[in-house]
What does this fold into?
Amino acid sequence: MKKRIFCNFPPAVIKEPILSQTLPQKFQVRTNLRGASISDELALVYVDVEGDDSAVAQALEYLKSRGVTVREVDPNKRIDRPPSEDDSAPTSSQ
It folds into this structure.
C-alpha cells in the first residue's frame, strides 16, 4: 500500500529524523519526500509512505502520536497549497 500524505510537524520534533530513519527502521516502510518547507519553527512535508498495509497504518499512527498533523491527499491531484480540514480525503476501493 502507498499513502501520499501531507504532514505538519510541531517544533519539538522538527530536528528528529522521523521520516528518513525512524519510520523505515521501526515500521519497515519506505518514505519518498515529494516536497517540503522546513524552518526551525515550522515543517510542512509532502511524502509518500509505502509498505505493508498494517505497517503503513502503524507508521501514520506513530506520526500522529508524536504530534504530527497528518492528512492523506489524492496522489492524482497536484498540490498547490497545503490541504485544509475542508479538503476531503480520497476514498480507496482497495
